[in-house]
């Protein structure tokens, strides 16, 4: 889903209006507001993003020409300036402290109906962002009801569909290749061979499920990381998936992990893995010369936020799907973040580490057709469950 094709370039010319009323507070707020911003999404949708230090517990209500978000145990932020994009339904945003609740009111140009759960997302923190409550909505009949409280343990998930309404484009990148074998298991299994096998199976199954799928490589070919990202751009991809198999100094380590792009690694292991993957063609983290001019231009701060949010949504959904399929997860978070060069583009995407070739048991498993099919089935479900239109 190229951001430049989804009207994100409209996210310039910000205006804002904010009113903050702060009575004396006798409570200790556990949460804090980090940012407020709006944007335009496909289908003439308005997106409101509320960034918080911790996962918020909230309710939604819909007075005339307003959207009101009440967030529990949170203090208003007097220094915050909302960033309001032109062309949205939101004309101003105000904050008010109501006891221990932060009340955020979006004043609208037109009334809206109750926002369906499929248009509400709770994104986990990544290296550049904290928790984000994402609300997408369009003009419609105002609803008199109030949405239920979303607890800190729950997040809204996109609606599932049996098949996409249109042929969304997915580019599958089988990592490494040619002179770069990737990691090699004790039994001689090469990463480049495993991920190419999975990529071919995944392409066939996604095509059978109504998607248009391309491979960055279909044989034992070496590609630079910037070339892989450029293929996704040229194909006007809606989603980019880079497939890999991991290695760890500890032979006992095993399980999948999923990564999205961030300038700051979520942990030391993520940083080292990104350095290892980026070293395959020696692309420096600040070296933009390998990317086409329009891609470099498109990577504005706002687009990076939007791509990060969409990538995070897919990655979290994919991790849930893997766990639901009883595929073992590497200890720690299922989704991590690091500056992977292959993910530097305007296309939302994730890097999937399918398992550890350094673990003897998992090496044998990754070689089997049955386990590869299990991985493919899980990835297909994650792509089908992903809401391409947000």
How would you explain this protein's 3D organization?
- This protein is an alpha/beta fold.
- The chain has two domains: 3-150, Immunoglobulin-like (Sandwich); 169-385, Aminopeptidase, CATH 3.40.630.40.
- The chain has seven helices and 17 strands.
- It has helices at 191-208, 225-234, 268-278, 293-298, 301-324, 360-367, 369-385; strands spanning 20-21, 31-41, 45-52, 58-61, 66-71, 74-75, 90-98, 101-108, 120-123, 131-137, 147-150, 169-174, 212-215, 239-246, 257-261, 335-338, 349-356.
- It has a six-stranded mixed β-sheet, with no helix packed on it. Strands 13-12-14-17-15-16 form a six-stranded mixed β-sheet, with helices on both faces. The chain has a five-stranded mixed β-sheet with strand order 6-2-3-10-9, covered by helices on one side.
- A hairpin with a 4-residue loop joins strand 4 (58-61) and strand 5 (66-71).
- Helix 1 packs across helix 7 (369-385) and helix 5 (301-324) crosses helix 7.
- It is elongated.
- Mean pLDDT is 80; it is low at 1-28, 143-164 and 281-300.
In terms of DSSP E residues, the strand content is 25-35%
What is the CATH level 1 assignment of the largest domain? Alpha Beta
Number of strands: 17
Structural class by sheet pairing and helices:
alpha/beta
**pLDDT below 50 for ≥5 consecutive residues: which ranges?**
1-28, 143-164, 281-300
Describe the global form.
elongated
Biggest sheet: strand arrangement:
1-7-8-5-4-11
CATH topology of the largest domain: Aminopeptidase
Distance from first to last alpha carbon: 10 Å
Characterize the largest beta sheet: strand count, sense, and whether it forms a barrel.
6 strands, mixed
């Amino acid at each position: 889903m190229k951001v430049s094709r989804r009207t994100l370039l409209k996210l310039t010319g910000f205006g804002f209006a904010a009113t903050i009323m702060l009575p004396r507070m006798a409570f200790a707020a556990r949460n804090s507001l980090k940012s407020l911003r709006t944007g335009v999404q496909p289908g003439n949708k308005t997106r409101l993003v509320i960034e918080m230090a911790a996962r918020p517990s909230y309710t939604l209500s819909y007075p005339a020409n307003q959207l009101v978000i009440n967030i529990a145990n949170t203090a208003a932020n007097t220094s915050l300036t909302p960033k309001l994009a032109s062309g949205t339904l939101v004309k101003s945003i105000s904050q008010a402290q109501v006891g221990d609740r932060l009340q955020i009111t979006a004043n609208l140009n037109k009334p809206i109906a109750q926002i369906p759960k499929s248009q509400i997302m709770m994104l986990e923190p990544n290296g550049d962002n904290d928790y984000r409550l994402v609300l997408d909505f369009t003009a419609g009949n105002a609803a008199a009801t109030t949405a239920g409280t979303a607890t800190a343990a729950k997040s809204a998930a996109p609606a599932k569909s049996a098949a996409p309404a249109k042929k969304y484009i997915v580019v599958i990148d089988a990592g490494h290749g040619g002179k770069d074998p990737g990691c090699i298991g004790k039994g001689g299994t090469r990463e480049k061979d495993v991920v190419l096998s999975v990529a071919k199976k995944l392409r066939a199954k996604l095509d059978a499920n109504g998607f248009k799928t391309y491979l960055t490589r279909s044989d034992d070919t070496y590609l630079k990381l910037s070339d892989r990202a450029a293929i996704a751009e040229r194909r006007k991809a809606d989603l980019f998936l880079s497939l890999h198999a991991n290695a760890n100094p500890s032979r006992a380590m095993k399980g999948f992990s999923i990564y999205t792009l961030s300038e700051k690694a979520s942990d030391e292991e993520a940083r080292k893995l990104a350095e290892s993957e980026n070293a395959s063609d020696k692309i420096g983290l600040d070296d933009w010369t390998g990317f086409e001019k329009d891609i470099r231009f498109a990577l504005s701060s706002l687009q990076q936020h939007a791509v990060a949010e969409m990538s995070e949504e897919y990655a979290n959904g994919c991790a849930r799907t893997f766990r639901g399929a009883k595929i073992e997860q590497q200890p720690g978070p299922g989704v991590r973040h690091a500056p992977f060069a292959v993910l530097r583009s305007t296309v939302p995407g994730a890097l999937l580490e399918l398992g550890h070739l350094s673990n003897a048991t998992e090496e044998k498993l990754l070689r089997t057709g049955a386990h590869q099919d299990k991985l493919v089935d899980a990835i297909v479900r994650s792509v089908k469950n992903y809401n391409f239109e947000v």
